Structure formats: structure tokens, C-alpha cells
Amino acid sequence: MMTTKIFVCPVVIPAKSPVAFMILFALLMFLMLTDSIVSNISLESAAFTQKQDSQSLQTLTVTRNIKSDVVLPLSLTVSTKNNIVDGDSEHQNSLASSLGVREKHGIGKFRRKLPEHEIFKSDELTKKFHGRVLEFFNRGCELHFFMTWISKVGAFGRREIMAAESVFKAHPNGCLMILSRTMDSVQGYRTLKPLLDRGFKVIAVAPDFPFLVKNTPAEAWLDDMKSGKKDPGVIPLAQNLSNLMRLVALYKYGGVYLDTDFIVMRSFKGLKNTIGAQSIDV
């Protein structure tokens, strides 16, 4: 929309003065010419904007014509700010917008193939996982607990130590296993050493993820996701894998799972087959 500027100023003109009349006339012509130039620039800007919108529509049309058998890799990065391994945000945003366009127009869905991430790999350390679990929990544990940690070892801080400490205050003879590749390291041992020095039974173990899901209902589901037959959805991949890891650990070994920011106030000894609600809508 063109904005017309009105200039108001007091002008004193002597009666019947031709010179003053000519000056006033020239001033009015100058203002009219300036307004005309501004109007032309505004019209050109509007035309350019319409051209950009037209190009955007053409781009949208091309997006709609993409075939439905595309398999897109999903990259992963570690976010120490959010304490989780998350998908690349720019990649996810572009993918989400493409998915939205395709779903809006009834076009087939993208299939995302899961990357060969560290959590899927088996090595000499992870192959000892099952034996280490059985050996650790065979130490006269009153109850055995699991936590998972999929972030960098340096992100395991005072809050997480306090949560682990609360487990032992309520269960002095309990055993806590932290399923984590990053914490199963020299630096991870140093992080947990204050708890070990107090005689608490705590250990970080690199999980063998393929072994954990083997012969469980999750095995076929994970294979379908890795091959691209199933879409992982909009939830961050690492969060889904962390959720899956805690479930299959309980499925195979039993025990109690706790988040690393959960403070235990009393013993869980009397609870059987129980799920604690994190929040309730009233």
C-alpha cells in the first residue's frame, strides 16, 4: 500500500507577489515529483514480491512431484545442551516440511533409513555385556536398578550423581547399572568414583543393543526401521532408542528403571510390576 506523506508548514506570502507565487508553485511541483518517484518504487517492490511468490509456488509444485520411494538418511549429533543425542535440526525441519506438503496433497510418505550409529555397533566391550550384567547383579543385591545415559560423559553432572545417590539412601544394598557407552570409560569411572568410595554398588556398562533386542518383540520393529520399512516418526531417534533400551533391559533382566533426574524418597522393595506416572492430567 502506498503511503502519501503530507507536509504542513506555515508559509507567509505577500499579497499579489509574483515571485512568492513562483516559489510556492516550484515547491509544490517538487513535492509532487518526489511522491511520484516513491509511488513507482513501491509498485516495483510489489511486483518483485509477486514474482518471488510465483517462484515459491513453482518450487512447491516441483516438491509435490517427488517420487514416493525416496529413502533419506537421518544424521545424528550429540547435544550437550539438551543432554540427548538428537537428529540434525536443519535436516529434520526440511524433512518435516516436505512430509507436510506430501501428506497435505495425499502423496506417498518418505522413508527414512536409520544411520549406522554407535549404539547399533557390537565390539569386544559390548560383547561382554551379558556376562557383566549377570556378574554385577550376583553380588547380593537387595534390588537392581537401571539407568540409561546416551549423552557425552562430561554431561553427567551433579544432578545425575544426586539421583544415583538417592537410590542408595533408600536401598543401601541395592545395585545400580548405568547403560551407557560413554560412561563405560576411564572418565566415567572417575565420575562415579565418589559413589564407589562410599561402598555403593554402581557400574556403567556399554550395552550390546543388538543382543538386547534379539528374540524380543522389538527385534522385528528395529529391523524394519533400520531398513526404511518403518518411519521413525517425529520423536528424536535417540529418545526412542533410549526408551527401547530400558524396556528390553527390564524384559530380559527384571528390576527397576529410573531416569537420571529422579530422586528416590523411599524404598521400592514392596512394589511389583509397577509403573510410576510422571504426570497426571486432572
UniProtKB/TrEMBL annotation:
This is Lactosylceramide 4-alpha-galactosyltransferase-like. Gene3D superfamilies: 3.90.550.20. It comes from the Eukaryota. SUPFAM superfamilies: Nucleotide-diphospho-sugar transferases (SSF53448). The lineage of its organism: Eukaryota, Viridiplantae, Streptophyta, Embryophyta, Tracheophyta. InterPro entries: GlycoTrfase_DXD_sugar-bd_CS, Nucleotide-diphossugar_trans, Put_A1-4-GlycosylTfrase_plant. It holds the Pfam family Gly_transf_sug.
